[in-house]
Design goal:
The strands form three sheets. The protein has a five-stranded mixed sheet with strand order 3-10-7-8-5. It has a three-stranded antiparallel sheet with strand order 1-2-11. It is built from five helices and eleven strands; from the N terminus they run E-E-H-E-E-E-E-E-E-E-E-H-H-H-E-H. It starts with 12 loop residues before the first strand and ends with a helix. It has a domain of 139 residues: Alpha-Beta Complex (Adenine-n6-DNA-methyltransferase TaqI, Chain A, domain 2). The protein is an alpha+beta fold.
């Protein structure tokens, strides 16, 4: 946990004495706009519902393929092929990109770990490609923090279908520590996510065990009465 965190302004580089897991060290943190550390592009706009075309050559990563809190990894069940639309190149998604859910009130970022080539994302998402010296895992982690959610609430627009305007999103300021620190934070985020998944699996397995035991006991009780 960071302690003695300084107050820093937009565009200011600050050297601070922080404590990370009890080991103090000096660290320079820059405050930058999202557009300064990543390219942000809206996904493609489909004129109608997207349906699978067996003869299509372009994979679409749809919202139903994404699980909040987990990196995206393509599996065969995600196959959703279409014929390439015009200028589809600007909607291409590659491993290392970040997909940001820009529609609705539940906005979050997902790191893309594996994806077919070529693949694109629809307008539901911003396609975020980090620039040099910006780690994808760190940026995705940063975009999912509670303080970021507060900023998103301030810029969200639209009554019917709320959305995050890309222009306002690009202007949001985020902390950008050195690359080594980004890697450490991204790894901690990955481990936290793995812990949540394992705890959920344990909870599910425990529930199934209790149901199985209850079924056996009740079944034996009924047969005994008969």
């Amino acid at each position: 946990m960071l302690r003695n965190t300084p107050t820093i302004e937009m565009g200011q580089a600050v050297t601070s004495s922080n404590s990370w897991k009890g080991a103090g060290y000096a660290m320079t943190i820059k405050i930058v706009r999202i557009q300064d550390c990543a390219d942000v592009r809206p996904g493609f706009s489909a004129k109608s519902a997207i349906v699978n075309d067996p003869e299509g050559t372009l994979q679409v990563i749809a919202a139903q393929h994404i699980t909040k809190g987990e990196p995206y990894r393509y599996i065969e069940e995600h196959s959703l092929l279409i014929s390439p639309p015009k200028f589809y190149e600007k909607y291409l998604v590659i491993a290392g990109d970040i997909l940001f859910m820009s529609r609705g009130i539940n906005n979050y970022a997902v790191l893309v770990e594996s994806v077919p080539n070529p693949a694109i994302a629809p307008l539901t998402f911003f396609i975020i490609r980090p620039k040099e010296n910006v780690l994808s895992g760190y940026l995705a982690w940063c975009l999912n923090q509670e303080m970021m959610k507060a900023k998103l609430n301030e810029i969200r627009a639209g009554a019917g279908t709320p959305m995050i305007p890309s222009s306002s999103f690009r202007e949001i300021s985020i902390p950008l520590p050195p690359l080594a620190t980004q890697k450490r934070i991204a790894e901690l985020g990955r481990l936290q996510m793995l812990e949540k998944q394992l705890l959920q699996q344990l909870t599910d397995a425990t529930d199934q065990l209790h149901k199985a035991i209850g079924k056996i006991l009740l079944s034996n009780s009924i047969h005994h009465k008969e």
